[in-house]
Amino acid sequence: MNKPAGAPSSPALSSALPRFGRAKARAASPSCIRIAPLSVSAGNRLLVDQVELHLHGGKLTALVGPNGAGKTTLLRAILGQLPTRAGLTCLDHQGSPLPAPPRIGFVPQNLHIDPDLPLSVVELFAAYGCRHPIWVSLPGSQVRRVEACLGRVGAAHLLHRRAGALSGGEWQRVLLALALENEPNLLLLDEPVSAMDANGRKAFYGTVSGLCHGLGISVLLVSHDFDLVAEHADEIVLLNRSILARGDARTVYGSAPFRELFGPVWSDGLFGPGKH
Questions:
Q1: 231 is in which domain, residue-wise?
Q2: Residue 43: CB partners within 8 Å, gap ≥ 6?
Q3: pLDDT digits (tens, 9 = 90+) for 168-218
Q4: 90 to 56, 81, 177, 180, 223: CA distances (angstroms)
Q5: What is the pTM of this model?
Q6: Is residue 24 part of a domain?
Q7: Strand 186-190 to strand 104-107: parallel, antiparallel, or no bridges (unpaired)?
Q8: Contact predicate 200/169, CB 8 Å
């Protein structure tokens, strides 16, 4: 999102949040965002090998796999932060490429800010979402817009809270609202609930799922929360450099690659032995 000239700068925020500019009007959401076969290398080491995904509007796709499987690398490649051999293709409802690339929202796993940062949540939005200097009183229309964005994720009460004083769960909800502010076609989340307790994780997944289906956007979420993924994801993709399995929870958790990587405890615990 565009940052106004003269606004306070936060290196952590600047490096972690992609800026795609405010959309003047919301375009029709694509029926499918296709990630063409995508590979990422580091020297002679292949980090992601020929990954192809179809992310449908209004569907939540969960990306699971062991540590070091390339999940975060894949998200960084989609964001354009890593060089790849192929790009991102966005299709309309007839299967034709859209003339413009999709707008992308991103919620990182951890984004640390200075706890003494003298910036409220509404000022944070103003710094990244408009050209109005934040040291001048913000117009009421801007405040109401931010409050509405926060309200969509159950965080309207944080409007005037100091950003550095937020809890981990509160901060992630603010980042989710910030990622949605530009009305993206594609929302990427990289283990966004790692700083939350069990109740917070469950509530956050419910919020993301509701927004995905309600707004009709494509969502790709990296997660290790197999039980919550089984409850909320429309599709699960098992990644270990390449895609090993995909489908619903019963299909993926009952697959031989998943059981080899994680053992039968998850599939048996969710579905019962031999009920895959």
A1: 29-271
A2: none
A3: 899 999 999 999 988 898 999 999 998 888 999 999 999 999 999 999 999
A4: 10, 18, 23, 18, 24
A5: 0.83
A6: no
A7: parallel
A8: yes
